[in-house]
UniProtKB/TrEMBL annotation:
Stored Pfam families: Cu_amine_oxidN1 (PF07833)
Protein name: Copper amine oxidase-like N-terminal domain-containing protein
Domain of life (superkingdom): Bacteria
Domain Copper amine oxidase-like N-terminal: 96-189
InterPro entries, per database record: Cu_amine_oxidase-like_N (IPR012854), Mao_N_sf (IPR036582)
Lineage: Bacteria, Bacillati, Bacillota, Clostridia, Peptostreptococcales
Length: 205
């Protein structure tokens, strides 16, 4: 939130200040007072000075905020998944980072890296449904529906099945799939996902 654009408070919002704000009380102006013209000029000058001060402070705030910007390839937000960690890191367009608990560590099995699907799907804005009777997890978004089950090595994308070569894992109640299939599971272009050492990076989600 930009504190200079918060209309919930007059202080810090230069469109709403009055003569008692900012520690300055303007001269009283009375009809017939010989000093009324001078008082008006002084009031206008002080208001203008305060307006310019707040505009400058707002500009400085925006500059400082922009200074924290950390370009990431195509200047986009991203999600970083690290092998062996139960947390993924989300990074916004300014480089600010926050860790989110997936509830289960990124795991290697039979030479394949497995990642929990549901926490990432929720982060990426997909609708998630779990059918307990068939143990099937369905991920949905406009134009994409994906079904995954630990009972089958097939992932179904918009009604078409594709063999992943290995069954999804079920660990700590979380369904996990090979990292190579994350893009397909989330309906993303494969160019959105990169592999950097022991990290998986989802860009511009």
């Amino acid at each position: 939130m930009n504190p200079f654009r918060d209309s919930s408070s007059k202080r810090g919002y230069y469109d709403y200040y009055d003569k008692y704000d900012y520690g300055y009380k303007f001269p009283e102006m009375r009809v017939g007072d010989d000093n009324i013209s001078q008082a008006n000029l002084e009031k206008e000058q002080k208001l203008k000075e305060k307006e310019n001060e707040l505009i400058a402070r707002e500009r400085g705030y925006n500059i400082n905020k922009a200074a924290n910007y950390s370009p990431t390839g195509n200047n986009s937000p991203k999600v970083i998944i690290t092998q062996g960690s139960r947390y993924f890191t989300e990074e916004d367009e300014y480089g600010n980072r926050r860790q989110v608990d997936m509830g289960v560590e990124v795991t290697t099995s039979n030479g394949r890296l497995f990642v929990a699907v549901t926490p990432l799907a929720n982060k990426l804005g997909l609708w998630v449904n779990y059918n307990a009777s068939t143990k099937t997890t369905t991920l949905s978004k406009p134009n994409t529906t994906v079904a995954i089950s630990p009972n089958s090595s097939y992932i179904t994308i918009n009604g078409k099945s594709e063999n992943m070569g290995i069954r999804p894992m079920l660990k700590n109640g979380k369904i996990m799939i090979p990292a190579h299939y994350l893009a397909k599971a989330f309906g993303l272009d494969s160019s959105k996902i990169s592999y950097e050492g022991n990290k998986i990076v989802i860009n511009n989600y």
